[in-house]
Amino acid sequence: MELMQLLQSQLSDDVLDQISSQIGADKQQTASAANGVFAAVLGGLAKNANSSEGLSSLAMILDRDHDGSILDDVMGMVGSVMQDQGSGNRALNGMGILGHVLGNQQEVAAQHISQNSGLNMNQVMKLMPVLAPIVMAALGRTKNSGGLDMGGLAQVLMGSAQSAGRQSGMGDLIGGILGEVLSGNQPQQQQAPSGGGLFGQILGGLLGKK
Q1: pTM value?
Q2: CA geometry: angle at 91 spanning 89 and 92, to 5°?
């Protein structure tokens, strides 16, 4: 199963009901925002895997903390994260994951996800730490089940981030966000161009592929 499909398959109706209730949001808007969060986190991970050192560190973290077992009980995982987003359990520490992947630019990503999903900023900021552990768990499970080496992991990340951008309907916009987030700049206040090329170009450049 492709990684984005694996991520989306974790958001059953019951899980979406649970999350939507917790953040006070419409279920369909939550689902839309979730795809944007998946795209942002996958794109940030692709950036972190841009260097051999970053890729090695990611592989180590996956092996140590994210074997995918939390996907066996997503409802329970969501409840745990909602109750304590600063959990000492590294597999569930959504805030810690976001801090590593997106750094101090989380609000930049949240702003654009909010604009495209209809959720307000507060709802998106509550949603992101809930979904970040799911992304890491799915990536860890994909790595283990496929026996991926570091090269294979990098390829999966790039392909999955591109797919996430397309499936979220925010390919260019999320690509633009990540381009700004990862360069450490603030986003330009202009409309994102149409089409699906920018996201792939950014991620292709991040991984050294034109």
Answers
A1: 0.82
A2: 70
DSSP for 27-42, written as a single string:
HHHHHHHHHHHHHHHH
Evaluate the CA torsion angle 111, 59, 11, 194 in order and state its sign: positive
* pLDDT single digits (tens) 56-103: 999 999 999 999 999 999 999 998 888 875 557 888 999 999 999 888
What's the rounded Cα separation, in Å, for the pair 192 and 116?
Answer: 12
Long-range CB pairs of 48-56 (<8 Å, 24+ gap) are: 48/100, 48/101, 49/153, 49/154, 49/157, 49/207, 50/206, 50/207, 50/208, 52/150, 55/150, 55/153, 55/154, 56/150
Cβ partners under 8 Å of residue 103, min gap 6: 181
Helices 121-146 and 27-48 pack at an angle, to 10 degrees, of 60
